[in-house]
Structure formats: C-alpha cells, structure tokens
Design goal:
By secondary structure, the chain is α/β, with parallel strands linked by helices. A hairpin with a 4-residue loop joins strand 15 and strand 16. It has ten helices and 20 strands. Helix 4 crosses helix 10. The two termini are 34 Å apart. It is 32% helix and 25% strand. It folds into two domains: 162 residues, 3-Layer(bba) Sandwich (FAD/NAD(P)-binding domain); 187 residues, D-Amino Acid Oxidase, Chain A, domain 2, CATH 3.30.9.10. Bound molecules: flavin-adenine dinucleotide (FAD). The site of flavin-adenine dinucleotide has 41 residues, from helix 1, strand 14, strand 18 and helix 10.
Length: 420
C-alpha cells in the first residue's frame, strides 16, 4: 500500500481515487472547488459513448474547419487570430493527425479504452448500486445529409469490426426507436443506433462516488488550490497547496484542462488545449416530446441525454484559450438547436446554461500512466469523452500504480507517443 495524492476531483480524479482505494491504497484528493465534479464534469452531454471514438482529427476536418471559420454557429471554431503559441503548436500536431492512417490508429486506441471503460462503469454500478439518472437504451446518431450518412455508415462498419456493434436505420426505423424524433422525420437521411451505449449525469455520479470514496477512507481537500509540484532528489515528493504542503509516495495528475499548467513546473509538457463547449439543461414538461434514447445530431455536433425529468442538450467547441466565460450567443445557439429538434419538450428560455473546457489532445486520445518524473502519474486529456472513459482510466491507473497487469493493452495511451 502506498500513499497517493490525486490532483483534481472531476470525474477522472474521483474515479481514480475510487479504484486506488479499492486496491487498498491510502488516498487523498485535492481540488480548488467546494465539491467534486464542479468544473468540466459538471454539465456535460451525459453520453457514455464509445460510438464517438472517431477522433476530431480526421481527413474531413481541415476542410470543414475552413468552411466554418469565423461563423458564430460553427460546431468547431478555431480562433486563429489570437496570439496564442499554445494553440498554434497544438494545431500543428492536430493537422498531422488528420490523415486516414492516423485517424484509424487513434480510433482504435480510443475505442479500446472507451469499451473497457463502459464495462468498468457497468461493473461499478452493479457492485455499488450507484444511481445517476442513467439510461441504458443506446445512442442514436441522426443524419440529414445523404453523403454524410454514407460516410458514417463506413465508420460504423469499421467500429463494428473493432468490437462495437452498430445498426444502420432508415428514417422510419429511427422514429420507431425514438418517437420524439417525429418532428425531424422529414429531414432525416438515416440514423445509426449503438445499442450498448448509455447516458447519465456525470456530476451526480461523481458526487455519489466521492461519498463512497469517503466511506472507504479517502480524504478530500476541497477549496484548496494546488500551487506547486515539488521535487526531492528528482522525485515528486510533495505538493504545495493554499492550505499547506501535502506529501505522498505517488501523485496522479487529473486536473483536466489545467493539467499542463501544473505539470510544466516539473518539465513535463502536455499537449492539452481547452475546447470550450456549452450545454442547456431544461425541465421536461412534455415527456413525449423529449427523447429518452440518447441522441447525437452529427451535422450540428450536438448531443441530447434524458436525465430523469431533465433534458441535457450539449455541443459546440471553441478553441480560444483557458477562458471560462460564457459567450451568450453560443449558449443560446445550443438551446435553439435543441428546440428545433425537440420542440415543446420544455421551456427552452428557462434552460440552465453552462460552459466547460474539454481537455483535448491533438489525437483525441487521453494521456495515462507514468512520466519521466518518478512519482508523477497522468490521468488527463480526455477531451470529448472524459465521462465515457473515466471508470476505465481510473481502473488502469490503479492497476499501474499497484504494479498489477492492466486488463487492456496500454500501447498508445501514454505520454511517450508525443516524444516520437
Ligand atoms: C459541452 C461538453 C459536453 C461534453 N459531453 C460529453 C459526453 O457526452 N460524454 C463524455 O464522455 N464526455 C463529455 N464531455 C467531456 C467531459 O466532460 C470531460 O472530458 C471530463 O469532464 C473531464 O474530466 P476531468 O476530471 O479530466 O476534468 P474536470 O472535470 O475539469 O476536473 C479537473 C479538476 O481539477 C481541478 N483543478 C485544476 N487545476 C487546479 C488547481 N490549480 N488547484 C486545484 N484544483 C485544480 C478543477 O477544479 C477540476 O475539478 C463534454 C464536455 C463538454 C464541455
């Protein structure tokens, strides 16, 4: 048993703490927020979606990004005008990953982890009885454009070959799967159902799991800023915080979009850039008009998850630095797109609007495992799929730290891939 400090109590830090405690380690978690899961893990799209394993960096993205340039309603917006060397460096690496070969490698890595993680979540749920407004009815991708749909069918076939069954549906079949799509039926070219995928409230899950962690003896230091990672003889030995110094045998960095800022203090460079996204959460007033199957609208890059009596609508990505301010135009766009697809589901003008920074790597694959600094481990960079990959990532970190063999191959999931 070793003493482990987990930096960050988002969904990634909290699941890491859980599996470390399960493995018998002494665990402490530090976070600047007053509770767990209050930053990017707070109001995300809710999807447990291995079906989204295709990376942002793929052959179609550069042309689409150019087309969207400067458009306020762009699903993916690069703000290149900014004098931001971090964005330019990240963007160059992103472009290198836009080949068909790299996209296939990155899909394989993401899918490997996402599928493993979905299984870990299901096992955790069965073992603990934890409830978080989950739905296990699958995820339905909808398409309006015939060419996009044809392309998506090819990607679906690849994923089916890689172990994720996906079913192609006609517009009639799509509406049979989710009757709340009736208003959109005339515009649909087709849909693809991933029956094994799920959805649920990531924040509720994180909060409830943190309570169970505490019951297992995990200590949470909330309202505590991490200020400095401190070396002793080349080894990470302690962390200075706003409430004093904390010592540990091992430190797991799970600071989301801020991980790179912390790790560079000990010369570990992480290619993680924040991609701001928005969500709108509304009370459902007409249950028949709101979906209960989780939906992805591929054209607008929007996702919809039914969380009990609420509907969570989320999407858009803006690469514009570590700015957490809400842009009212982009927030309203999310609510407008949602109302266009599911009119009458609730009062969209009263929706709770939120934004968060996805910690995105250039290849869309997170960074897990040991670093060149003895004692420092990474569990970060989960981008668009942090909720999907949380349980698997936490379990893998606990196995690595415990010196146990991991259940899946770790090839391509570590920081070493960026040294090549
Ligand atoms: C609009 C949107 C929709 C999304 N939809 C989905 C989805 O449907 N499915 C999915 O799988 N994923 C989705 N995601 C992605 C997912 O939400 C993230 O990948 C995930 O929340 C990242 O978790 P994390 O724990 O790494 O980061 P965070 O939740 O941000 O946690 C990091 C923690 O570190 C703490 N921290 C950082 N720096 C310091 C410091 N100096 N001192 C103290 N504490 C610090 C923060 O307070 C924070 O609590 C979405 C994201 C967005 C924005």
């Amino acid at each position: 048993m070793v003493k482990v400090l987990v930096l960050g109590s988002g969904v990634i830090g909290t699941t890491t703490a859980w599996y470390l405690a399960e493995a018998g380690h002494e665990v402490e978690v530090v976070d600047r927020q007053p509770g767990p899961g209050l930053e990017t893990s707070y109001a995300n799209g809710g999807q447990i979606s291995p079906c989204h394993a295709e990376p942002w960096a793929n052959p179609a993205t550069p042309a689409k990004a150019l087309k969207w340039l400067g458009r306020d309603d762009a699903p993916l917006l690069f703000r290149w005008r900014r004098l931001d060397p971090a964005l330019w460096a990240w963007g160059a690496r992103f472009l290198l990953n836009c080949t068909a070969r790299r996209a296939a490698v990155n899909t394989d890595r993401t899918l490997r982890l996402a599928l493993y993680s979905r299984g870990c979540l299901q096992a955790l749920r069965a073992a603990t009885g934890i409830a978080y407004d989950q739905q296990t009815k699958g995820i339905l991708h909808i398409y309006r454009d015939g060419a996009e749909f044809a392309q998506a069918e090819k990607a679906a076939a690849l994923m089916s070959r890689l172990g994720l069954p996906r079913e192609v549906k006609t517009p009639d079949e799509a509406v049979a799967v989710e009757p709340a799509l009736a208003a959109a039926h005339k515009d649909l070219a087709g849909a693809i159902l991933t029956p094994g995928d799920e959805s649920g409230d990531a924040h509720l899950f994180t909060r409830r799991l943190a309570e169970r962690c505490a019951e297992k003896g995990v200590i949470f230091h909330f309202d505590t800023w991490i200020q400095a990672l401190e070396l002793n003889g080349g080894r990470l030995a302690s962390v200075a915080t706003s409430k004093g110094r904390l010592h540990a045998d091992a430190v797991v960095l799970a600071g989301g979009s801020w991980s790179g800022r912390l790790s560079r203090q000990v010369d570990v460079r992480l290619p993680i850039y924040p991609a701001k996204g928005y969500s709108a959460t509304l009370a459902v007033t007409d249950a028949a008009a709101a979906p209960s199957v989780s939906i992805t609208d591929d054209e607008h890059k929007m996702v919809y998850s039914r969380l009990g009596e609420r509907l969570r609508c989320a999407g858009t990505a803006e690469l514009a630095g570590w700015n957490t301010e809400m842009d009212p135009r982009r927030a309203r766009l999310v609510a407008q797109l949602a109302e266009g697809l599911f009119p009458g589901a609730g009062d969209y003008s009263q929706a709770e609007l939120w934004c968060g920074l996805r910690p995105v790597t250039p290849d869309s694959v997170p960074i897990l495992g040991a670093t060149k600094v003895p004692g420092l481990y990474l569990n970060t960079g989960h981008g668009t799929l942090g909720w999907t990959m949380a349980c698997g990532s936490g379990r893998l970190l606990a196995d690595i730290l415990s010196g146990r063999p991991t259940d899946i191959d770790m090839d391509g999931l570590g920081i070493e891939r960026f040294w090549l």
